[in-house]
Amino acid sequence: xxxxxxxxELKALQDxxxxxxxxxxxxxxxxxxxxxxxxxxxxxxxxxxxxxxxQCNLLSDAEGWIEVQRRLQSLRRLHERNxxxxxxx
Length: 89
Description:
By secondary structure, the protein is an all-alpha fold. The chain has a domain at 29-89. 75% of the residues lie in helices and 0% in strands. It contains three helices and no strands. α2 (30-55) packs across α3 (61-80). The longest helix has 26 residues, at 30-55. The chain is extended. The model has no long low-confidence stretch (mean pLDDT 92).
């Protein structure tokens, strides 16, 4: 028997999760939203550092940050030349 959820069940779950996130965000004060955004930014930078260190077999954070900076500069150059467009959903 197939226990995988159907596409419609997954879509319903995604919609419910999104609606819950919107509801929570609307209940936040502006300061709480800012705190949440800053926390998310810190998490993303940590993931970028961990990914760069792992992919390049780097041991130190300093080397990892250099690689992160290199990657961000590369993306920035592509974006400035209209060769890269972020996906906005």
